[in-house]
Design a protein that fits this description.
9-stranded mixed sheet, alpha/beta, Stationary-phase Survival Protein Sure Homolog, Chain: A, about 25% strand, 13 strands
Length: about 260
């Protein structure tokens, strides 16, 4: 397959390099287009009112001075001229589960690709350090050999999270929904004066609710989590009560 690789950890991050090496060894045709430095938590941001530089650093490798979504846009509209079969974003250093998918540059890059009509998969591993990328990479190749790419559709993304355990200790694969997490001490105060203060957003390791059927439960139990994501933001079950409120308050008649 011809595969576009992208991430949010930067073009020289170990996750994307492990993936690149493994996929190339498996005979896939790769092009790597990734940020020139780390852009974690970039979400679905794009760069406006500022020039973006694309630099070829090797054959089929481009470093972009922008966000992960910028990378996908540039790759699909300028750099890549032939049809591609799949876009893979990752492997991210750290899980992308629950509400984190809304902040994730890794997931957002895959979402942008899907918005272009491409098949797209996001990959993450559940560790912020000492990641077992070799295990996650081997498991992704297994999933690819079993046709996970055929399950992807335009305007949908498959979000895959790997437990940070050796290859042999992964218990299997679970289909999951996004769970929930809470961050405590979400900000760190750097300096503080009477009328101003400086801070960083980071905080402690998130606390997960291990609800049955969720991505967090699967990872906690030692399974690979596969979560289909879509872009339908409308909440259908909220329509009837809001419509009833509009009708009861006679808001339809306001001129």
């Amino acid at each position: 397959m011809k595969i576009l690789l992208v991430n949010d950890d930067g073009i020289n991050a170990p996750g994307i390099r492990f993936l690149q090496k493994a996929l190339a060894s498996a005979g896939h045709d790769l092009i790597l287009v990734a940020p020139d430095s780390e852009r974690s938590a970039a979400s679905h941001s794009i760069t406006l009112r500022k020039d973006i530089t694309a630099t070829r650093i090797a054959a089929n490798e481009w470093a972009i001075s922008g966000t992960p979504v910028d990378c996908v846009v540039i790759a699909l509209q300028k750099i890549i001229t032939d049809k591609i079969d799949l876009v893979v974003s990752g492997i991210n250093a750290g899980q992308n589960m629950g509400e984190d998918v809304l902040y994730s540059g890794t997931v957002s890059a895959a979402v942008e690709a899907a918005m272009f009509g491409q098949r797209a998969i996001a990959l993450s591993i559940n560790a912020y350090k000492d990641q077992k990328f070799d295990s996650a990479t081997r498991w992704f190749l297994n999933l690819l050999d079993h046709g996970i790419d055929s399950l992807t559709k335009p305007y949908e993304v498959i979000n895959v999270n790997f437990p940070n355990v050796p290859y042999e200790e992964v218990k299997g694969v679970r289909l999951t929904r996004t769970g929930h997490r809470k961050y405590y001490n979400f900000i760190s105060i750097i300096s503080e004066e009477e009328d101003s203060f400086s801070y960083r957003i980071g905080g402690d390791v998130p606390q997960w609710d291990y609800e049955p059927g969720t991505d967090a439960e699967a990872i906690n139990d030692g399974y690979i989590s596969i979560t289909p994501l879509g872009f339908e933001l409308n909440k259908a079950d909220a329509f009837p009560p809001i419509l009833s409120w509009i009708e009861n308050k006679k808001l339809l008649e306001i001129k």
